[in-house]
Amino acid sequence: MTEAPRLTDRKRDAILAAAIAEFRANGFEATSMDRIALRAEVSKRTVYNHFPSKEALFADILVQLWNVSAPERELAYRSDLPLRGQLQELLAAKLRMLNDTHLLDLARVAIAAAIHSPERAQSMVARLGEKEEGLLVWLRAAQDDGKLRGADPAFAAQQLHGMLKTFGFWPQVTMGEPPLSAERQQVVVASTADMFLAAYDRAERE
């Protein structure tokens, strides 16, 4: 029998749902903890008991949305499998995450908020950066296995993320373009893998 959520968990979930609705409707600056508490039907003190600040609440929402759209497990490097297939599977998972509609909506809010406070943006980006480490771990393992040329894995991971976001994140966030179709995602993933391996795959370069 599934145990019913505790009251404190239900209140936290209500706060998160209310905050998402407020941020999407009004933006970061216009949203207050009072408005969030009112929508969640809890006291302002309860909101602060769960989240010390509006910035912390917003960052937590972004991380939760990222987690919801992420695969159940990160793809672990396999030395017995071809690089291309592994890389394409990993990139496809990343691109699906980036195309989550709720994440895109709140990314727009985050960018607007960052214009007014670069320091706030650094904190938010740092939290999300933690969710991009899976690719970095995979690249390091492939390099340690001698399959990738001697490049800085962190730099290579940033390149890969940049290529994906060029098609499947920034146009949607800044220009209002729709999320990529499944077919378009496959094209982006395949071309990104081709370009990356042409530069870094030791077997292709030798």
Automatic annotation (TrEMBL):
<protein>
    <submittedName>
        <fullName>TetR/AcrR family transcriptional regulator of autoinduction and epiphytic fitness</fullName>
    </submittedName>
</protein>
<dbReference type="InterPro" id="IPR001647">
    <property type="entry name" value="HTH_TetR"/>
</dbReference>
<feature type="DNA-binding region" description="H-T-H motif">
    <location>
        <begin position="32"/>
        <end position="51"/>
    </location>
</feature>
<dbReference type="InterPro" id="IPR036271">
    <property type="entry name" value="Tet_transcr_reg_TetR-rel_C_sf"/>
</dbReference>
<dbReference type="InterPro" id="IPR009057">
    <property type="entry name" value="Homeodomain-like_sf"/>
</dbReference>
<dbReference type="InterPro" id="IPR023772">
    <property type="entry name" value="DNA-bd_HTH_TetR-type_CS"/>
</dbReference>
<dbReference type="InterPro" id="IPR050109">
    <property type="entry name" value="HTH-type_TetR-like_transc_reg"/>
</dbReference>
<dbReference type="Pfam" id="PF14246">
    <property type="entry name" value="TetR_C_7"/>
</dbReference>
<dbReference type="GO" id="GO:0003700">
    <property type="term" value="F:DNA-binding transcription factor activity"/>
</dbReference>
<dbReference type="InterPro" id="IPR039536">
    <property type="entry name" value="TetR_C_Proteobacteria"/>
</dbReference>
<keyword id="KW-0804">Transcription</keyword>
<feature type="domain" description="HTH tetR-type">
    <location>
        <begin position="9"/>
        <end position="69"/>
    </location>
</feature>
<dbReference type="GO" id="GO:0000976">
    <property type="term" value="F:transcription cis-regulatory region binding"/>
</dbReference>
<keyword id="KW-0678">Repressor</keyword>
<keyword id="KW-0238">DNA-binding</keyword>
<dbReference type="Pfam" id="PF00440">
    <property type="entry name" value="TetR_N"/>
</dbReference>
<keyword id="KW-0805">Transcription regulation</keyword>
